[in-house]
Amino acid sequence: MNNFTYYQPTRIHFGWGKLKEVGPITARYGTRALLVTVPPFPAMEEVFNETKQILKNYGVTVQHFDQVVPNPTTESISQGAQIAKEFKAQVVIGLGGGSSIDTAKAIALEATHPGTAWGYRLFGEHKIEKEVLPVIAITTTSGTGSQVTAVSVLTNPKERFKSAIVDPKLFPKEAIVDPKLMMTVPAHITASTGFDAFAHAFESYIHINANPYTDLLAIESMRIIATTLPSLLQNLSNQEARTNMAWADTLAGLSIANCGTTLPHGIGMSIGGKAPWVMHGEALAVIYPEFLRYTLPSAIPKFATVARIFHPELAHENDEIAAKQLEPIMVDFLKNIGMWCDLQSLKIPQEDIQEIAEYTFKLPDYTVNPRVPTPEDVLQLLKSAYVRR
């Protein structure tokens, strides 16, 4: 067993109806809270109002910033940070999917540090020198794991580049994971975020810095998703399945918080920077078959383990035979959950492929893949994923 360190400072409040605890949880950190969400829409407006009322009942004054956008932008974050400073917020609450929670983290940073959040990204010009505003994360989807990670993903539209801020100070102080909030998530978002969670678990499992603790979390997450996501998509109101997916997402988030992601996330982030209309789960799914084929020779034992999660009968085969089955298994899984796509169907201009490949190498994910690619390797993966027949 390798030596390792595991760190997780986020207090997790998991379970049906846990939203009602947001009042006393928040009040521990202050009486002035910036609530960060997407613009109100019918499925979530009641949740937004309920949250504000609970906070008010516990003596917390709320300023609602409701301008979060998918693939959070530097402009949206700066707008929210300015409001936080003017309001003199003492705590930031991110309520929603990964975009809302990532925006909340970036606002908590920008409101307390010079410059903009973009300057604190990976390989950016600034370092986080002091504490940010405390963040409380309330997730309404099962996919990003952001409620338990020290990562905030953000996009600079001018540069058409998606990057991330990674620092232990960004860990939410508290995470509320209430599966009841996920009951209205539509099928495609359920599938996309669900596959994102699977990718988090899988990539942390094969990561060159994986350890026994993250492996334990990742394997359990993948097991739950493999057995739960397809059936959930057949019955979106299944409370047990929603709860299981919320737990799988949390496990995967805990895993990447101490390990990280590999090549697909680097490529997926690059796709998202160039094509912000593409959901993160879609950007991952589109490259997974090619990624699996490319990485297989360097990860046979772990590929075999994952293949057996989906098909236990492969326990009777040796690792090499089982590992080779993972790519066709994943193709079937993607088709089964409605995530089978190619770059063309995602409306990615063919002329952007070269730059997507180049931008992949502005992020470190490729360096921790079991098989480290060259720029030409990534370009060929993307070309293979452009049109599928």
Question: What is the compact description of this entry?
Answer:
The protein has 389 residues and is α/β, with parallel strands linked by helices. It contains 15 helices and 8 strands.
Describe the SSE topology:
Blueprint: E1 11-14, H1 22-27, E2 32-36, H2 42-57, E3 61-65, H3 74-87, E4 91-96, H4 98-110, E5 135-139, E6 151-156, E7 161-166, E8 174-177, H5 187-206, H6 212-234, H7 239-258, H8 263-274, H9 280-285, H10 288-295, H11 300-310, H12 319-324, H13 326-336, H14 353-360, H15 375-384
Notes on the structure:
With 389 residues, the protein is α/β, with parallel strands linked by helices. The chain folds into two domains: 11-182, Rossmann fold; 187-384, Up-down Bundle (Dehydroquinate synthase-like, alpha domain), CATH 1.20.1090.10. Helix content is 47%, strand content 11%. It is built from 15 helices and eight strands. The protein has helices spanning 22-27, 42-57, 74-87, 98-110, 187-206, 212-234, 239-258, 263-274, 280-285, 288-295, 300-310, 319-324, 326-336, 353-360, 375-384, and strands at 11-14, 32-36, 61-65, 91-96, 135-139, 151-156, 161-166, 174-177. The strands form two sheets. A six-stranded parallel beta sheet has the order 1-8-5-4-2-3, sandwiched between helices. Strands 6-7 form a two-stranded antiparallel ribbon. Helix 2 links the parallel strand 2 (32-36) and strand 3 (61-65). Helix 3 (74-87) crosses helix 4, helix 5 (187-206) packs antiparallel against helix 6 (212-234) and helix 10 packs antiparallel against helix 13 (326-336). The model has no long low-confidence stretch (mean pLDDT 97).
